[in-house]
Structures are given as C-alpha cells and as structure tokens.
Amino acid sequence: MSSSIKSTIKLNNGINIPVIGLGTYLTEDSDIEQSVRSAIEQGYRHIDTASYYKNEKKIGDTIKQLIKEGVVKREELFITTKVGTWQHGYENALKAFEESLEKLQLDYLDCYLIHYPGTYSELPKGESMSSLRSKTWKALEKLYNDGKVRSIGVSNYTESHLHELLSQCTIKPVMNQVEFHPYLFQESLLNYCKSNDIVLEAYGSLAGGNEILTEPVVLEISNQINKTPAQLLLKWAIQNGLIVIPKSIKSERVIENSLLDFEISQENIKKLNLLNKNKRFYWDPNNVN
C-alpha cells in the first residue's frame, strides 16, 4: 500500500482526500504559519483545523499568502474544520460555519465535521443531546446541499452515536475522526465504519508523546525496519485503513511524518494491534448520551 504525500482515497460521496494531512490541534499563532507553510511547501495538501483550536484566521492568512505566491492552488487543497462543542444546534452550526469560512478566507470548505457528540454548554430547555446533535447534522446537510462544503462528517463518535446518525440522516457522513493508536486500537469501531463506508481518520496517532514512542515493541519494530517510531505508528494506522493528520511545528518533523512509502509486515501489524489497552489521552465520548 503506497502512502506518499500524494496518496488519496475516495470518500463515499466520490471525492478524494489525501491520506496524510497536517493536524493543527491547539498550535499557537506564533507557530502555525511556519507549520502550515512548511507542510504545503513540502507537498501536503490536507490541513485539519477546528473552531476550538482558535487558529483558523492564521491558517487562512497563510494559505492566502501561499496561493498568492503561486506555491499552491486553492483547488489542490483539502481543508477541514469543525463545529465546536458550544456551537451545536441548527442555527448555531450554520452561524459557526460562516464564522469559520470567514476566518479561513475561503469560498467553500472541503470537509466540515461535528467535533464532538456532546456539549459543554447547558442544553436548551426541553432539548436532549440526541435531538441537538440531530439538528446540528441537519445544518451540515444544508451546507452540503447548498454547495458550501464538499463533504460532511463527524469526530469522536462512538458506534452508538453513528448508529443514531445513520438511522435519521439523509446524507451519510464521509468520515469519523477519532483518537486512534496502538494503545487505543478501536477495532470494533473501525470495522463498523468500514462496513458502513465511513472512513476513520486518526488523531493523536502518537498518543500524546513519549509513552508510546518509547514502547519496547514500537522501538523493536522501528529499529528492525529502520524507520522512526513516529513513522511506524503513522504507517500502522494507514495500513489499518485510516487517514492520519499528525501535528508538528518543526519543519523536519513535518517532512519525516510524510515519508511513509514503506510496508509493515502483517506479523508486525498484529504485534502493534495487541498493544491495545483502551487508553485515551484525549476526549472520552463513551459517556455522552
């Protein structure tokens, strides 16, 4: 399975998404320009952000400048952002989208996701989280039908959240972006998504840093195949059928994270799968009703 910076897969609505993207989770304004610029100059075409990250404006500025310089064309890019936990609801989500679009200084988005199935705001009177989620999705369907976004999906959804959504939506989500690494090998969710033609996209592939990067099994395999632990973990996710969006503000790491044109043997894939301990480093959506 080839995994170069140019590799793409087809989403369930027929559009292509690069398999390797740049994550920008809480990247500071002072670092975001360097991170995005170096990624795009190195050939990245997929950038992932969110209203929650508070860096859409700086990303928009950088992309605009790179387009102006002739480094990249808008239509070559795949830009994703997300509805925040405090932006659930039909009108709220439509407003959130327009705010994000304005900050990113774009005419359309390539993908818009519901960031989380729950909210940290107080629920409106008489509203359940389930009905609020449903209204948020209806807003995304409208944006898709109006041609303002090329694809729509979700993030941090469990199988039960996806089952609920699939039972009522008129447009199926193209992806579910979740925490995924060998310590959190969500095999059941992965199989559920595959059977429903929903792509799983991994965030937190390096599991918050040193703990997994110094895991003996990870070190053993990475030494054996002469790749860095980070490259091994990213390629492991891709060989399990996922898209990856590693974050880095260092140019050399941005480049390293894209050099994934190698194969991990099935034996080593299984060894990494067996490291699972259902350990999360980020949000846990399992207790969101």
TrEMBL record:
Active-site residues per Swiss-Prot or TrEMBL entry: Y53
Q: Identify its protein family.
A: Belongs to the aldo/keto reductase family.
Tell me the SUPFAM superfamilies matching this sequence.
NAD(P)-linked oxidoreductase
List residues binding substrate: H115
- Identification of the protein by name: NADP-dependent oxidoreductase domain-containing protein
Enumerate the spans annotated as NADP-dependent oxidoreductase domain: 21-273
GO MF annotations, alphabetized: oxidoreductase activity, acting on the CH-OH group of donors, NAD or NADP as acceptor
PROSITE patterns for the chain: ALDOKETO_REDUCTASE_1, ALDOKETO_REDUCTASE_2
Question: Which keywords accompany this UniProt record?
Answer: NADP, Oxidoreductase
Is NADP one of the keywords?
Answer: yes
Its taxonomic path starts at:
Eukaryota, Amoebozoa, Evosea, Eumycetozoa, Dictyostelia
Q: Site positions for Lowers pKa of active site Tyr, renumbered to this chain? A: K82
From which residue to which does any coiled coil extend? none
